[in-house]
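To assess whether the prediction recovers the assembly geometry, we first specified each molecular entity separately, as shown.
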Amino acid sequence: MGRAFRWILPHPSLTLVLALVWILLQNEVSAGMVVFGIILGIVIPRITAIWWPGTPKGFRLGRMISYSMLVIRDIIVANIEVAWIVLTVPNDKLKPAWVSVPLDLKQPEAITVLAGTITLTPGTVSADLSNEGSCLLVHILHTDDPDAVRDEIKDRYERRLKEIFA
Amino acid sequence: MTLEALAIIGAAISLLIGSIFVLVGVIGLLKFNDPMTRLHAPTKVGTLGIGMLLLASILTAAASGDPSMHEFLIMAFLFVTAPVSAHFLAKVSIHTRECMTPPKPTDDEMWSTLDSPDHSNEEKPATK
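The predicted structure of the complete assembly is given in tokenized form:
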């Protein structure tokens, strides 16, 4: 029974997300749309299951929501800072820097979320991963102290992500 | 002052803020002269600029009595895809050596973009 369930629903949360996206796309909540969304949510994960063998374990939704709120706040603050840099700092005074962030996260999903967060926060872009996956290369637009930015990334985002993907 | 008028004013303000951020992003794209610093401008446009424009769209749709949820989907898709494209642009500029060479990673041997057959023969003389 458990195996049959896992065969039909390899990724139950993906099924929910796909059904929700379908209903949002239709912009109406009717029984037909909900049923069709659930059918899509079952068929698509089933077809793509062979390319996606592992399931992320121990994902905490509540903490993910508070993390998203923190990231949205940071995006707004950093946007204003970067807009100020773009408008006021001349090109030859700009101090761009590379910084290598050592990763404690091991799960690919967690590293993807961290890299996405770094890129979405203006002022930092995640550029590359080292060949063994233990370091993230981050480019900073303008900074006097690259190490402080690295510590902030580790303390502010990675620590929280470690709790989410515990 | 009705709720509808408030929504329209809110939409106008968020359109204005969104356009300012898009404008700043374009200025950044034109002003910077290094591919990596230039990459910072579109990430800004993609987040707050588009976000404010979509907020205006939500407000006007709600004011006209036809609320729409598509904007949240646009935002979600944008937040998922924008970092991926930025990541690939960064990898291309590292690969073609159009930017400053990044420092060695602290734990591993090298960055995965430079860990390719094209780079293995030129990497050795460069380190000496």
